[in-house]
Design a protein that fits this description.
The protein has 263 residues and is α+β, with helices and mostly antiparallel strands. The strands form 3 sheets. Strands 4-5-8-6-7 form a 5-stranded antiparallel β-sheet. The protein is globular and about 60 Å long.
Length: 263
């Protein structure tokens, strides 16, 4: 059971940051996963009055506020067009519409959960996080940074020339994923992000140039084998390490085969 003693709706980012420096205090976000945790929170910090619930699209990037709901990201026409529907495929499996109307992109990214479809998708894109004090940091670096008490303001996704694909495996439709996989075909080559190993998502780039165009089943499988060899997996109640390693090969190959048809 989570016990909250006080509630404060921050009126500025500076106020939110100062409140969050006290160890017993917590930023709420959408509070979907937090409410399932145990512990005592002195002051729950609400960011909903700071205007961070919008998606701004320019010619060069998307600026996704930390308080944007997963549902809004799922339905955003511009982001859907850019990701070629990979956003819908990544988000539609997360519990249900009511849940996605409340859960926030910022909470999913800042939490760096191993099971996060959101993190897997954004990691394969040219994505950055904007921290109130830490500035703009590549998401690939942020994933491996230690947790701190900074405030996540927004996620920035640069519009690059790329094709995207997303796949996942679940035991049941709305369950946590057994494995997640996103792939991108960019001007620099192929890359894939794999999550729910059950560790947090990690990015693999095609340093060996195994999956060059035109994409064939053999090239897709070669890169899939390469990715599976680099990414460690573990066992938990949803699947064994060996099964997850097998899934890395299967899902990565499927993503790359799909990308070959888009190129």
């Amino acid at each position: 059971m989570l016990t909250i003693r006080e509630y404060k709706q921050a009126t500025t980012l500076e106020e939110a940051w100062h409140l969050n420096q006290k160890r017993p205090n917590r930023v709420l976000g959408g509070m979907l996963w937090m409410r399932l945790s145990k512990g005592n929170v002195q002051t729950a910090i609400d960011l909903s009055a700071l205007g961070l619930d919008t998606i701004e699209e320019t010619e060069t990037e998307f600026r996704i506020g930390a308080m944007v709901s997963l549902r809004r990201l799922e339905l955003h026409e511009g982001f859907t067009a850019y990701s070629e529907g990979a956003n819908k495929e990544a988000l539609r499996h997360i519990v249900g519409v009511q849940f996605r109307n409340l859960a926030t992109v910022g909470g999913s990214v800042f939490g760096r959960f191993g099971f996060s479809d959101v993190l897997t998708l954004l990691l394969v894109m040219d994505s950055y996080v904007e921290l109130y004090k830490g500035g703009i940091v590549p998401l690939a670096d942020f994933v491996n940074m230690p947790y701190d008490r900074d405030i996540l303001v927004r996620i920035i996704v640069k519009k690059t020339a790329a094709h995207y694909s997303y796949k996942s495996v679940r035991i049941s439709k709305t369950d946590f994923p057994v494995l997640t996989c996103a792939a991108a075909l960019t001007q620099e080559g192929v890359q894939a992000a794999v999550g729910a190993r059950p560790a947090k998502a990690a990015l693999v780039k095609d340093a060996e140039q195994l999956a060059t165009l035109p994409m064939t089943a053999e090239k897709a499988q070669a890169f899939a084998e390469y990715a599976a060899g680099l990414l460690p997996t573990e066992t938990n109640p949803r699947g064994s390490a060996a099964y997850r390693t097998h899934l890395i090969k299967v899902l990565t190959a499927r993503c790359l085969t799909e990308l070959g048809g888009k190129s």
